[in-house]
Amino acid sequence: MKRGFILFFVVSILPVLLQAQKPQFSNDQLLMGKEISQLLQDRGSPQLGLDFEQLWTNKLTVEQKKKLTAGFAAMVQKGYKVDPHFEKLVTLINKAAGHNELSTSSFDNFITTISKSIELSKPQELMAFLRTSDLVLEKRALYASSYNTLQIEGGTVDFEFAEPAKVEFVEEPEAEVQQQETKEEDNDWFDDWDSDEEEWDTNWEEEEPSAEEAKALILSAEEPQMPLEGPVVRVNMGNLFFVTKNDSVALKGTSGAIMPSSNTFVGQGGRFDWGSVGLNPNEVYCDLSNYNFQVDKPFLSASNVRMTFKGKIAEPVSGEFEYRGSSGKTKNTSYPRFVSYQEDIDIKGIADEKLSYKGGVGLRGDRIYSTSMMGGNTIIEIKGSQNSRLKVMSKSFQLQDSVIIAKRAAMILYHGKDSIYNP
C-alpha cells in the first residue's frame, strides 16, 4: 500500500517537476532542432516538436539556425518558460515558414526580429509581438475583439526590430509634458461640433488673420512622427479597415508599422473617403501624411491632411481630419470629419455676381460647414438694388444645396448711408 502511494505521488508531481526544470541545450546548431523537438515532446506537444525538427533540418538557412540557436540559449538564461514562451515561439516560426503570403526575405526578417527581441526586449514585449504576428498571419488583422477589428487588405507584410533612438535627456517643463498626450485625448478641433449649446457671441468685429498667423497655425499642427521602437510588424501599401458591429470604413493605400507592446500604429500616407456617408468616394476624400493611432480603438485623427471635394472646392485644402467608429447600435453618420486651417476657401455654387462668401470649409459626415481653424467669422454678403446690401456673419454656416443655415448669426442691412444692425 505504501509503495503504491509513493508511485502515485511520483507520477502526479512528475509533470510539475519537468515544467519547473530549465531546458538544457548543447548550443550546437546541428543538434538544436532535435533538442527543441524533444523538449516539446516531453512537455506534451509532440507534433509541434516534430514539425519544428523537420523545418530545422529541411528549410532553415545556416544563418537562421545560428540566430535561433543563440536566441534559445538566451531564453534559457533569462528564465523563459516552455509554456507559454517556447511553445508560442516555435508555433509562430512553424506558421510563418509555411505561410504562402510571406516572401523569403520577410521570413528572414521575422527570424531576425525574434532574435533581436530575445536579446533586447522584455519577455512581455516578445509575447506581444508574437500575438500580433499570429493575428496577422492567421486573420490578416492587426487587432480583433468582439467590439472592433482592424483588418488588413492587400499590400504586403514584413517584420523589423527598430533600435531605440539615442537622444540626450532634456527635462521638459510640466506644461509641455502634459501636452504630449495621445491624439484622441488631445485633439479638440471638433469638440464644439457635438454640442447643441452655443455661447451667444455678440463680438462680431472683423479681424483679418494675417498670412503669418495662418502659416503659424499650420506649422503648430505639424508634429514629428512618433519613432518606432522594438519589434514591429510592417504593412506596405495596404488598406486598413476599421470594422465595428455596424460600420466598416477604410484608409486605403497606406504604409506603416505597429508596435505591439503599445498597440500603436505609426503610419504614412493613405486616402480616407466619405463613401460611408453616401458621398462619392472618388470625389470626396482626404489624403493623409503622417499619423498614428491606437489599434484597439476605432479612432483615427491626423493633421495637415489634404481635402478634395470635387465640384465644391476648386483645389485641395489643408486641415484636420478625424474618424470615430460607432459605439452604439446605430451608425454614427457625423463622421468622418474635416476642418480647414484657413478661412479664404473658394466654395463653388455659393458666390456669384450678387453674393460673396468668405470662410473656411468643414465636413461633419455628409454636411458641409463654413468652419475653419482660424476661428474667424464667415461673412456672406448679398448685393441688392439701389445701393443696398445685406451682410451676414457667423462662426459657422451649414451650406446646403439651396439653403444656408446658421444657429447664431449677426446681420447688417445697408441702404445708402444708413444701416440696421442685428447682433
Strand content: 25-35%
Could you give the count of β-strands? 21
Main sheet properties: 14 strands, antiparallel
Query: What's the helical proportion of residues?
Result: 25-40%
Explained architecture:
It is a single chain. A hairpin with a 4-residue loop joins strand 16 (378-383) and strand 17 (388-394). This protein has 423 residues and is of the alpha+beta class. The longest helix is centred in the first third of the chain and has 19 residues, at 2-20. The radius of gyration is 30 Å and the shape is elongated. Helices cover 31% and strands 29% of the residues. The chain starts with a helix and ends with a strand. Strands 1, 2, 3, 4, 5, 6, 7, 8, 9, 10, 11, 12, 14 and 15 form a 14-stranded antiparallel β-sheet that branches. Strands 13-16-17-20-21 form a 5-stranded antiparallel β-sheet, with no helix packed on it. Helix 2 runs antiparallel to helix 3.
Could you provide a short overview of the structure?
By secondary structure, this protein is of the alpha+beta class.
Q: Which descriptors apply to this entry?
A:
alpha+beta; five-stranded antiparallel sheet
Write the layout of secondary structure elements.
Layout (H helix, E strand, L loop, with lengths): L1 H19 L8 H14 L3 H13 L3 H16 L4 H16 L6 H17 L2 H17 L1 E4 L3 E6 L2 E7 L11 H6 L3 H4 L24 H11 L8 E15 L2 E13 L4 E5 L2 E3 L10 E4 L2 E5 L4 E11 L7 E8 L12 E4 L14 E4 L3 E3 L2 E3 L8 E6 L4 E7 L3 E2 L4 E2 L4 E6 L2 E5 L1
Antiparallel strand pairs: 1-2, 2-4, 3-4, 4-5, 5-6, 5-7, 6-9, 7-8, 8-10, 10-11, 11-12, 12-14, 13-16, 14-15, 16-17, 17-20, 18-19, 20-21
Helix pairs in contact: 2-3, 3-5, 4-6, 5-7
